[in-house]
Design a protein that fits this description.
40% helix, 9 strands, two-stranded antiparallel sheet, seven-stranded mixed sheet, globular, alpha/beta
Length: 339
């Protein structure tokens, strides 16, 4: 039985996907998830037999999409760790990723990580490769306090001290000190179990959102968006971008999290999207800016707008935000004359 694996992604909509799917304006067809992030929505779409196009500007998210959205049946064996690599290859890769030493991990850990990246480069099957890269990403995140890569090194060291962690938080968090290989092996079965074939030709992309629409060769039925709204907890490039740097897959992209440009950038994107779809569906919460009214007013220029709402509590790194959040789903039915 397939099941979406643990990803560790700030803002992940795993707890909301059923509600989102239930309120989509069409029950079948092709859906482009334009800012796919950890791919929880894309995965739920796949489970519900949509054809899924998953896109994200971060390569760290693209590898997850290739592993569990586009991939139909390829799984990964622990035998991958028996891949022969040389010390020279490991040392070369270590020099390339040495910027991670005493920034995210201890030096000996970066050397282990270098070996894993060398192994990934030797994998011939593309879906096995992306599965392994997704598992490396999961291991890198799991070893970090707060599951993100912009925590200062002195804070990382402090929180990885299990005695300090227990004294301050009553939790030792020993998993921060597990090896990368152990984390990968611990998660391998879950990721393999997430692979399934919904008999659709699902595709994964690694584009800036504007470029994705430009490269879309055919119309889709729905474009779903959960863009990085202007907020402290939405700096996904800061949170996960060092993975992209380590694997040398960084692209430039429009930064939607800039407060003064968000609505303007979003409208420019909407104007591109209306040529390529019947419906645009946008997720937002009452905690973000611009407001639902501002978004709805802007979208109404291009067709008919409906708004659905649901109370929700976000849980981040083990703690629940006690302030109730209202999750919104804004649905634009594109006016024919707007296309």
């Amino acid at each position: 039985m397939s099941k979406y694996p643990k990803i560790n992604y700030i803002g992940n909509k795993d707890k909301l996907v059923n509600w989102i799917i239930d309120n989509l304006p069409l029950k079948k067809g092709t859906v482009l998830d334009l800012f796919s992030g950890g791919n929880s929505v894309a995965y739920a779409l796949k489970e519900n037999n949509y054809t899924v196009y998953s896109n994200d500007a971060l390569y760290s998210n693209f590898v997850i999409s290739k592993a569990i959205i586009e991939n139909k049946n390829i799984k990964l064996s622990e035998e991958i760790f028996n891949t022969k690599v040389t010390e020279a290859q490991i040392n070369k890769k270590y020099k390339e990723i040495s910027f991670l030493s005493n920034r995210l991990y201890y030096d000996e850990e970066v050397k282990e990580l270098a070996k894993l990246f060398v192994i990934s480069e030797k994998i011939e099957n593309e879906y096995e490769k992306y599965m392994f890269l997704a598992l490396i990403r999961r291991a890198m995140i799991r070893k970090l306090p707060y599951s993100r890569m912009n925590v200062p090194w002195n804070q990382i060291q402090k929180l990885r001290d299990e005695d300090y962690s227990y004294e301050k938080y009553k939790r030792r968090r020993a998993y921060h000190n597990f090896t990368f290989e152990r984390h990968i092996k611990d998660n391998l079965e879950n990721y393999n179990n997430a692979v399934f074939d919904n008999k659709k030709d699902n595709k994964s992309f690694n584009y800036d959102s504007f470029d994705m629409i430009d490269n879309l060769k055919e119309k889709v039925d729905i474009i779903y968006m959960d863009p990085p709204y202007p907020a402290t907890m939405n700096k996904y490039g800061d949170f996960y971008g060092l993975y992209d740097k380590a694997v040398k897959h960084e692209i430039s992209y429009v930064n939607f999290s800039e407060n003064n440009m968000f609505l303007s950038n979003l409208e420019k994107l909407i104007e591109k999207c209306i040529e390529k779809t019947k419906y645009i569906v946008i997720s937002e919460s009452n905690k973000t800016k611009p407001t639902v009214k501002e978004l709805s007013d802007m979208l109404s220029k291009y067709g008919t707008v409906k708004v659905y709402s649901k109370e929700h509590q976000y849980k981040v790194t083990g703690s629940i935000n006690k302030n109730q959040t209202v999750e919104m789903l804004i649905i634009l039915k594109v006016r024919e004359s707007s296309k």
